[in-house]
Specification:
The protein has helices spanning about 1-20, 195-200, and strands at about 25-30, 45, 50-55, 60-65, 70-75, 80-85, 95-100, 105-110, 115-120, 120-125, 135-145, 155-160, 165-170, 175-180, 185-190, 205-210, 220-225, 235-240, 245-250, 250-255, 260, 270-280, 285-300, 305-310, 315-330, 345-355, 365-375, 385-390, 395-400, 415, 420-425. It is mainly beta.
Length: about 425
């Protein structure tokens, strides 16, 4: 009886291997959400060729995926080892096979007990079936003009209406904007794309440049320094944290794309400034009253001729400049004519006296000071800005008018409540 059963089982297995019809079926998807697994967010891929061959090389058959990504390959009736794979040239745009991992192919044999099908699904990555990222990454910076002939950012002036252009290295993306009155700009580029990083990495490297025709006459770019044989530009790339940008130039790497240029039209080697005004506190009462003038001429001792007085009403202090050592000014032609234009500005420093008034017994025979005035056009009130720091020789701040009380050395100007400040270039000098 046992012998009869063994023969029957052998005959049954031989019958399956020689006369059983079966298929390799499955789906082909594109990893639209880039998570390396097949899920509801993925997109079926139509028209891809799936080939199945046996290990012995005596059988091969194929099927194209349909609109649902489904394929069905009828297999040989022999019991053998099989390999199923995608033909790379049939994939849209040349996809990268994610699943199955490794070789990108399936190996399988005829199932026992018998089954009609063997199911194997494929997952690819491909630009044509992955939606472009909807996110945008902001690129920001400043375009400023140096106020002195040194290649350092000393009291720079923001340049308005300068065109900033950003393009990628494959020329498939471009964006542009113009700078605001203070020289600031912002524009967007597409957010980091994993697929693009693999298939077209140059598409995610950008070049930030300025349109030369929108710069002041005879401009020279100081920052960024150009790379070898290139015009001054920033190469903008995504950092290790893909939401951070890295700006690379001959100056090195930085986290911002700020520009500093030099142009005679931004300098004012013979500027005069003057005016007066007040600054009100939270109670709308006047806290500060100031005024004076500084000419473009110098004394025999090489000091700028002028005077400046500041009364701190709340603190009951009177400051008077006795010697003006340095004046750094910057002028943009026409800046004082309109509210929307770029600003004129001047910084001046030197020595003075500080004493108490109205019952305040404080008295400092010699103090140092740094001031900054900004001429934003007419009318001055509410537009022009002012900063003053009076301090002792050891650096102790004695009087401060600033928008940054936590850091007295930060030249943070505040708007004036009344009055007008003017900065002008003296003709013939």
């Amino acid at each position: 009886m046992k012998r009869f059963i063994a023969v029957t089982a052998s005959m049954l297995l031989a019958g399956v291997s020689s006369a059983y019809a079966w298929s390799a079926v499955g789906h082909l998807y594109c990893d639209a959400n880039l998570n390396n697994v097949i899920d509801s967010g993925d997109v079926p891929v139509q028209g891809a060729l799936v080939v199945v061959t046996n290990i012995s090389g005596t059988f091969s058959n194929a099927s194209f995926s349909d609109a649902e990504g489904f394929y069905d390959v009828t297999l040989s009736e022999s019991n053998d080892q099989y390999v199923g794979y995608l033909v790379p040239t049939s994939l849209p745009g040349g996809g990268l096979v994610i699943l199955p991992a490794g070789s990108g192919s399936f190996q399988f044999s005829m199932p026992f007990p018998p089954s009609d099908i063997v199911t194997n699904d494929f997952l690819i990555r491909n630009l044509t079936c992955v939606s472009e990222p909807t996110g945008k990454t902001m690129v920001t910076g400043l375009v400023q003009c140096a106020a002195t002939y040194a290649s350092t950012n000393v009291a720079p002036i923001g340049l308005a209406d300068v065109t900033v252009i950003i393009t990628n290295l494959t020329s498939s993306f471009s964006n542009a904007t113009v700078t605001a009155a203070n020289g600031s700009f912002s524009l967007t580029i597409p957010s980091f794309n994993d697929i693009l990083a693999i298939q077209s990495p140059l598409a995610q490297i950008y070049v930030e440049a300025l349109a030369p025709s929108t710069l002041p006459a005879d401009s020279t770019v100081l920052i960024p320094a150009p790379l070898t044989n290139l015009n001054p530009v920033y190469f903008v790339n995504f950092g290790s944290e893909t939401d951070n940008l890295v700006f690379t130039s001959g100056t090195g790497e930085s986290s911002t794309g700020d520009w500093l240029i030099e142009s005679p039209s931004c300098h004012c080697l013979a500027c005069a400034l003057g005016g007066s005004g007040t600054i009100a506190g939270l109670s709308k009462k006047t806290d500060h009253s100031f005024g004076g003038s500084i000419s473009a001429s110098t004394s025999k001792k090489g000091l700028r001729i002028g005077h400046w007085t500041h009364v701190a009403l709340t603190n009951k202090l009177l400051f008077q400049a006795t010697a003006i050592h340095t004046v750094t000014a910057s002028i943009v032609p026409g800046a004082a004519a309109t509210k929307a234009s770029a600003i004129n500005m001047a910084e001046f420093s030197g020595q003075g006296t500080l004493k108490g008034i109205r019952g305040n017994k404080a008295k400092y025979a010699s103090v140092l000071f740094t001031a900054r005035v900004e001429d934003h056009g007419q009318p001055g009130r509410g537009l022009d800005r002012y900063y003053l720091r009076v301090y002792s020789s050891d650096g102790t701040t004695l009087l401060l008018v600033s928008d940054d009380a936590s850091d007295p050395s930060d030249i943070a100007t505040v708007p004036i409540s009344t009055g007008n400040l003017t900065i002008r270039q003296v003709k013939g000098r």
